[in-house]
UniProtKB/TrEMBL annotation, chain A:
Gene from which the chain derives: PIGQ
Domain of life where this protein originates: Eukaryota
InterPro entries documented for this protein: PigQ/GPI1
High-level lineage: Eukaryota, Metazoa, Chordata, Craniata, Vertebrata
Keywords per UniProt: Membrane, Transmembrane, Transmembrane helix
Transmembrane regions listed in the UniProt entry: 295-313, 360-378, 390-422, 463-486, 492-516
Protein name per Swiss-Prot or TrEMBL: Phosphatidylinositol glycan anchor biosynthesis class Q
Length: 598, 188
């Protein structure tokens, strides 16, 4: 229906006023005379030239080739006009011959490009018949020449990707906006570029690959080897995931521990990613391919960094030093905590505490620390072996090593976490009690049914006991609040350190290194758009422009191709965090995805 | 054919408007901003180094001086590459689109191209900027969903900030080409 070879078809948008744009590949600018082959886009009044067919040719064979290409690529390839690259003296016979071709391959409008050899002056003419009969007078359109680098346009990908139409029979609807249609045409016509000048085909073409099809031995070998390697890796990974899902790890204490450790989370994430990469399905589209490549490069870099870390640790027997330093450090931390508690039990910062409560709380926490120190001393002979075995896991990747570090920090500061929970629970109990008794003091009550504060008439003895309790609680508030404040600050410190480690792990997990490398080395592959440059212009000659690819900025590359990660983001805003701190609710600022609310 | 005029921007600095007419359907306007002056570079460098020397006499640490030199160099390079715009160009090609290029002092160029199918109109708009009312030229983009709506307003010559006389000239030329484009696109 939209076949461009019908002489009765007139484009509705391109009247005589609209300038005709001819997209011409730079590789064909020095080719010999011949026919122009490409696609005509009537909505934008543009002709995308894909190749030049040289003399001598047999018209029937040219038509056959074009039909084959049209079948294979779903692009409406047709003969658009003639190309003449001649010497200084115009050859009259050639001129008539070229015009005669117009009747053979009828196309509206018929393009005639002409260039003098060795000079930069071009001549363009586009003729269009104004009636159904061949004898009707022809009218000429203004032509604008736009040069484009065929190889770069073929390989590049526009962002944001225009909604590419599905492959339909016949000419694809150019619902893609103006320039996206050009990119789309060149990308789909790859089958036209398969033959080079060393082939013995019936038709001689010039296009970007006509000097010889490019290929790399390494890439071809890698492609051949990739199949069996992927199969082997996929089997191994399925074995590992089956082993991890087996019954041994199901019972409750173990599954609870696995869910809390960030190392397991990271290992699971890596396993998922690797399974995706080595799966046997082909990537559906360019986005999937980029994601696979990014994942692979990220995993390889991770392992390389991990091995580097391992070799550095082994070099000067650093494991032994670390193990030796670990127990004194834990001891030191416990000692500092004891000093802190002694300070709180006295008169901290000149404040006067309630002596009895102070002593109770202080002794309680001191006993905990005593237990903790004994536990650490119990473990100290085994520390070096444990550390050595954990260090081996660094060969699985730097992210795993960092996750193990974060887990070790959690385990070593477990007593701070316990103290924080005790302090917070005590404080929140006190605050709730205080608020309820304060309402009683004013003669009001919380209505659970209506979720609001209502007035209530209390008995005298209720009021008496309530006021007494209120007074007791309010006088004990500073002591509890101080303990709560101190332990919350310690807990926040530990959480900040862990958060930084997790941030680093997240960064390594989600950075799209392959895309960034591509943007650095082959910027034309990721295109944000195009840019034009006006070439030397002489009066009376057609306007010549050079179309270049405008590469995507680095920030957009990261944003578009960012890999999905474990999602370690702070779940609360600052306002809700402050509110929770004030009321003594427990906070878990860094939540992994899939954690249940406590 | 080419045309060059000397104008001023909203703060009184000198601008040069360079107009190139390639063909009835292709026009280019180039606005050159005032160059970076040696006086301001010298003033900033002297201030930073004096402050560093003052710190050095307090702390007796020679790292401060090397750090000051490093910071000055990096700051200058960063300023030339990311902040200081040398000239801004507007290229209008009938039936193709509008292209805006900013060239930085270090030679970096950042280009944006808007296809003609997305351009609704080019207008001069007023804005209140601190205590002044300024005029700026902007491109209105069509909304793909609503035929009479505007999806985005793209200002042109944002760092050169020329005055109304320059804007009127650019506006007239743009409107000529856009009118031609509209006539061509609506004719049967």
């Amino acid at each position: 229906m939209r076949s461009s070879s019908s002489p009765f078809f007139l484009s509705f948008n391109s009247g005589p006023g609209m300038v005709l744009k001819a997209f011409f590949p730079t590789c064909c600018a020095s080719a010999d005379s011949g026919l122009l082959v490409g696609r005509w886009v009537p909505e934008q009044s543009s002709a995308v030239v894909l190749a030049v067919v040289h003399f001598p040719f047999i018209p029937v064979q040219v038509k056959e080739l074009l039909a084959q290409v049209q079948q294979a690529s779903q692009v409406g390839v047709a003969v658009l006009g003639t190309w003449c690259h001649r010497r200084q003296e115009p050859e009259e016979s050639l001129g008539h011959f070229l015009e005669g071709l117009g009747t053979l391959f009828s196309h509206e409008p018929w393009l005639q490009l002409c260039r003098e050899r060795g000079s930069k002056s071009w001549n363009c003419k586009a003729t269009r018949r104004q009636g159904p009969t061949p004898l009707a007078p022809a009218c000429e359109d203004q032509v604008m020449l736009i040069f484009y680098d065929q190889r770069k346009v073929l390989l590049s990908r526009l962002h944001p990707p225009a909604a590419l139409p599905e492959r339909q029979a016949g000419d694809a609807t150019a619902s893609a906006g103006g320039l996206a249609a050009v990119f789309d045409t060149v990308a789909r016509s790859e089958v036209l570029f398969q033959s080079d000048r060393f082939d013995e085909g019936p038709v001689r073409l010039t296009h970007w690959q006509s000097e010889g099809v490019e290929a790399s031995i390494l890439v071809e070998l890698a492609k051949r080897a990739a199949g069996p390697v992927c199969l082997l890796l996929a089997c191994l990974l399925s074995l590992v995931s089956a082993a991890s899902a087996c019954r041994v790890f199901r019972p409750w204490p173990l599954s609870f521990i696995w869910s809390k450790l960030s190392t397991c989370e990271q290992l699971r994430h890596r396993l998922d990613q690797l399974t995706l990469v080595v799966s046997a399905h082909r990537a559906e589209g360019p986005a999937q391919l980029m994601r696979k490549a990014n994942t692979l490069v990220s995993v390889l870099l991770d392992m390389a960094l991990g091995l580097l870390l391992l070799s550095w640790l082994h070099r000067k027997d650093r494991f032994a030093h670390l193990a030796e330093a670990l127990v004194p450090v834990a001891d030191r931390v416990a000692e500092e905590l004891q000093h802190l508690l002694q300070w709180l039990m006295g008169a901290p910062a000149g404040l006067k505490m309630n002596r009895a409560l102070d002593q109770v709380l202080g002794r309680f926490f001191l006993y905990h620390i005593h237990l903790w120190i004994s536990y650490i001393h119990l473990m100290s002979p085994f520390i070096e072996h444990i550390l050595w075995h954990l260090g081996l896991s660094a060969c699985l990747g730097l992210t795993v090593a960092l996750s193990i570090l974060s887990d070790i920090i959690s385990l070593l500061t477990f007593h701070i976490y316990c103290f924080y929970v005790y302090g917070a629970r005590l404080y929140s109990l006190k605050i709730h009690g205080l608020s309820s008794l304060w309402r009683l003091f004013r003669g009001k009550k919380w209505n659970v049914l209506r979720q609001r504060v209502d007035s209530c008439s209390y008995d005298l003895d209720q009021l008496f006991i309530g006021t007494l309790l209120f007074t007791i609680l309010i006088f004990l508030l500073p002591t509890t609040a101080l303990y709560y404040l101190v332990f919350t600050l310690l807990r926040l410190l530990v959480v900040t350190v862990q958060g930084l480690v997790h941030l680093l792990v997240d960064l390594i997990n989600s950075l799209p290194l392959y895309s960034l490398g591509l943007r650095l080395c082959r910027p034309y592959r990721l295109a944000a758009g195009v840019k034009f440059r006006v070439l030397e212009h002489e009066a009376g000659r057609p306007l010549r422009l050079l179309m270049q690819i405008n590469p995507l900025p680095f920030s957009h590359v990261v944003r578009t191709y960012r890999l999905p990660s474990c999602g370690c983001h702070p779940k609360h805003s600052w306002g809700s965090l402050c509110r929770k701190l004030f009321f003594g609710e427990l906070i878990y600022p860094w939540r992994q995805r899939g954690d249940k609310q406590d | 054919m080419e045309d060059e005029r000397s104008l001023s921007d909203i703060c009184g600095g000198r601008l040069a408007l360079h107009r190139r007419y390639y063909s009835p359907s292709c026009l280019e306007f180039c606005l050159s901003c005032p160059r970076i002056s040696l006086r301001s570079i010298t003033a900033v460098t002297c201030t930073v180094w004096l402050a560093a020397y003052g710190l050095f006499t307090l702390c007796e640490n020679s790292m401060i001086l090397s750090a000051a030199i490093f910071i000055t160099l990096l700051g200058l390079l960063g300023y030339l590459h990311f902040v200081k715009i040398d000239h801004e160009t507007l290229l209008i090609i009938d039936s193709l689109g509008i292209q805006m290029t900013s060239s930085y002092a270090s030679g970096k160029e950042s280009t944006t191209f808007i296809e003609m199918g997305k351009v609704k109109d080019v207008i001069i708009n007023e804005a209140i900027y601190m205590q002044k009312v300024i005029y700026y030229l902007c491109i209105l983009l069509k909304d793909p969903v609503e035929p009479h709506g505007i999806s985005q307003v793209v200002p042109i010559f944002q760092s050169a900030k020329p005055r109304l006389d320059c804007l009127i000239e650019v506006y007239r030329s743009c409107q000529e080409i856009l009118a031609h484009q509209k006539a061509a696109s609506t004719s049967p």
